[in-house]
Input
Amino acid sequence: MTVYFTKEHEWLSVEGGTATVGITNHAQEQLGDVVFVELPAPGTALTQGGDAAVVESVKAASEVYAPIDGEVTEANGELEGEPAKVNEDAMGAGWFFKMTVGNESQLATLMDEAAYNAFVEAEG
Amino acid sequence: MIDADETLLETPLASRHQALGARMVPFAGYTMPVQYPTGILTEHTWTREEAGLFDVSHMGQAMLEAADGSHATVATALEALVPADILNMVPGQQRYTQLLNHEGGILDDLMVTRSIDAADDGYLFLVVNAARKAEDYAHIAANLPAGVALKPVDDRALIAVQGPKAAGVVADHVPGAADMAFMTGRSGAFDGQDIHLSRSGYTGEDGYELSVPIAAIGVIWDALIADRRIKPIGLGARDSLRLEAGLCLYGHDIDETTSPVEAGLLWSIQKRRRENGGFPGFERIQREIAEGATRRLVGIKVEGRAPVREGATVFKDGETVGTVTSGGFGPTVEGPVAMGYVAAAAKEPGTTLEIELRGRTVSAEVVKLPFVKKRFAK
Output
C-alpha cells in the first residue's frame, strides 16, 4: 500500500487496482469542524484535478479534487451521519471515496508523505 | 501576505488569544481569533449551555456628549440620524438602532445607552461595528449641532460574556450585575476596577458586554478565563450564534440599500418616530410601513444537511425571488440555517423555496426567526 498526496491536500492510498481518497490531517485542521460532506455516487467518472467532492465546515464550503483519473466505486456512507469523522481520523475512518486507478502514470505526479510535509511547511 | 498583515491592528488581548492557541484571521482591519483549539462547534454549544467569553474590542466605542449636560440636547442630536426613540430612553436604558442615509438605507447598526447617573446626563454611549467605525464617526460628527460632540473612546477594550451562566459568572466579580435588566447599562466595579457594563449581546443568550479600561483588561480577562464555567469563543461561533438567533450582520444582512422595514427591524423604531419621523429616509420607511416593503429579510430552514451560503439565489416555483445573505450550519439547530431577502409574496412562514446549491437546488422553507428561542434575562 502506497499513500500519495496532492497540493490541494487530498491523500490517495493505492492497494491493488483501487485507490481510497480523503483529505489530509492538515486540511481538516485548517477547515475546522466538518459539518457536511458531499460525495460522488459510485459510477461517477473523475478527471485528475476535477471536482470530486465538497466538504463543508461551519464557516465555508471547500472543493475536494480528484487526485487522478478513474471511476468512483464506493462512497463512505458513514460520513453522512458522522461528518466529524473527518476531523477525528482524516487519514483513516474519515476517507471520502474509493476509485479505480484509471491512469497509473498520474501517480508519479503526486507527492509522497515526506514531500507533502515539506510542501505544507513551505506553504506556512 | 506579510505586507497585508503588517497593517492589521491588534486588540489589547491579542497576546492572550495567541497564548490560548487561537487561529487568528483578518477581520475589519484587525487580527482576530476566529476559533480556539476546541473548535467552532464546541464553542457554540458551550455558549448555549455554559458561558462564552468574547473579545469584541475591535468594535467602536464612542461618547456623544452635550455641553449643556441635557439628555434632551444629546438625544435630539442623535434622533436626527437614527429612527429609534432616544429622547424617551430612561437613565440606564440601552437601545438598538441604525444610522440611516437619506434613502432610508442602513449605514450601520449600533447600540445606544443613556447614562444611568443623573450627574452624567447629556452623555450617550455608542457601540458601532468595527468595519464601519471610521465612516460612522465622520458621518455623526459632520451632522451634529453646536454644543454636541462625538468623542471616540480609544482607551477601552470591550468583551462579552454570553450564555445561561453569564449572570452567575459576572455577578461573582461585579456586585449587583445579576440584578440588571436586559438592555440596561451602568458603571460597575469588577473586582474593584471601574468598568461600564450592559446586559446585552449578540448570541440570543443572556449576557453582558463589559467596557474596560485597556490598563485593566488583561487582569479582568484572566479572572474570567480562570472560571470553569467560561471558555473563550472566537468569531466563527459568534457568527453561528447570531445567525441562529436571527440577528443581522452588517454588510451581509443589512447595508446601505436595505431599510429597517425590509430587514424586519421595525420593532426598533418606536411609535413616536414612526408617526413623526424626523430622521433620514423617513419617507421610504413611512411608505414601507403603510404599503409593506417589496422584499423582506426572512429565516430560511434548508432541507438536508448541506449548508447554503451567502449569495445563493432563492427561487419559488422556479422564479427567482431573492438571495441568501447569511447561511451556514446551526450547531444548536443541528442543521443548515440561513437568512435572506425574498419578494413580499414569498415572505410568509411556511412558504416553500428552492435555494441554489452547486448547480442544482435544495428545498427550503421560510420560517419565523429566531431559529433558537432567545433566552434573555427578564
